[in-house]
Amino acid sequence: MDFAFNEEQLELQEMVRDFVAKEITPNVSEMDKNNEATPGLMKKAADMGLLNVVVPEEFGGPGLDSVTIAMIYEELGKGCAGVATSMAANSLATAPVLIAGTEEQKKMYCDLLNNGGLAAFALTEPGAGSDAGGVSTRAVHDKEKGTYTLNGTKAFITNGGIADIYLIFANTRASGGIRGLTAFIVPRNTPGFKVGKKEDKMGIRPSNTCELILENVVIPEKNRVGREGEGFRIAMKTLDAARPFVGSVAVGLAQAALDYAVKYAKERRQFGQPVASFEMVQGMMADMAMKVDAARLLVQRACMMRDQHVEFSKEAAMAKCYAADTAMSVTTDAVQIMGGYGYSREYPVEKMMRDAKIMQIYEGTNQIQRLVIANKLLR
Ligand code: COS
Prior knowledge:
The protein has 3 domains: 7-118, Orthogonal Bundle (Butyryl-Coa Dehydrogenase, subunit A, domain 1); 120-228, Butyryl-CoA Dehydrogenase, subunit A, domain 2 (Beta Barrel); 232-378, Butyryl-CoA Dehydrogenase, subunit A, domain 3 (Up-down Bundle). Strand 2 and strand 3 (147-158) form a beta hairpin. The chain has a 4-stranded mixed sheet with strand order 1-4-5-8, with helices on one face. A 4-stranded antiparallel sheet has the order 2-3-7-6, with helices on one face. It has a two-stranded antiparallel ribbon with strand order 9-10. The mean pLDDT is 97. It is an alpha+beta fold. The longest helix has 37 residues, at 231-267. It has helices spanning 7-24, 28-34, 41-47, 66-79, 81-100, 103-114, 231-267, 279-307, 313-342, 349-359, 366-378, and strands at 119-122, 138-142, 147-158, 165-171, 181-187, 193-198, 209-220, 224-225, 269-270, 273-274. Helix 1 (7-24) packs parallel to helix 4 (66-79). The protein binds coenzyme a persulfide. Residues 123-124, 129-130, 132-133, 178, 232-233, 236-237, 239-240, 313, 363-364, 368, 371-372 line the site of coenzyme a persulfide (COS).
């Protein structure tokens, strides 16, 4: 395994850092207050090629490997985990089509992303999250008309209110369960499709999170991704692919909190000396740095295994779980090192701590990740 970035990757890293410095960092606090990204930010991200990073070359995309994509998300995560989440949601929502879609579906979906479109992955419902098979949105097939009619409600959908296209999981069996779970492409303007309430979240506030309502949404058969009942397998493979990227956003967030705490500890003086000169603070910083590096290495290993097409579910779960726990503990310690200033909205680390919490919850809770890891160990 070679973890050194090549020249092309370093150039890309510099470009993303520049984007973060110009377009994200100056507006982070405002976006956090307003509960939305700066208007026009996604368009600028699209122009920089940050919304179609997973699109393969054959479909007009950059054809990047997973380690490079993770590097991009880490840089975005350093700037704002909410903005990074919104951009990474495009990759999450595209994976099902790349995994199981027809050539026509891949082309349509990738063209949209290449042209700056936003996508949303809609699996979670008020009654289904960790229990992915518990989806109660129904899809009823009309063989004569060649259509499916979808009815149901989706919850906590990233990009829900701003996406152009939706990857919706619905059940084709009245009895429910994982054997009926099926994936569908639903364009935003489809009659009967509505965006419901927008969430007022604790953290990652620049990312748009909404409820979706489907009332007699009729779509053609050609919008079904994969076979009827193949949805659970597609969802699991998608989550395997996306979890290292969640890990990379968490690594970026943790690295930014560590960097801020180190800088602060060198400047802040107590008892006539910089806070950084106290061994208890040094011990905290050393532990934080070890966790961030270990998390990054787990993310890179999972990405490499994915690109080598070897089984990597366990490693993807490890990367997501460890990086999310790292983001939570490192941002909490950054607040601690900064004391009262860390707890104040005048400084960025309290937002980072709020942002970190969701990393342990979304795209599979860390309890689910531990379940996946244990299941693989006990197989
Ligand atoms: N890749 C491909 N197929 C997979 C898979 C994977 N990673 N994981 C499971 N499957 C397949 C299994 O092979 C099995 O197929 P067969 O029945 O044909 O043998 C089927 O899916 C069921 O597998 P399993 O019995 O392991 O599933 P469980 O019902 O026990 O569920 C958990 C396992 C809980 C791990 C799964 O439901 C899960 O990951 N849930 C979390 C979902 C999530 O992340 N939600 C967050 C919201 S979405 S952002």
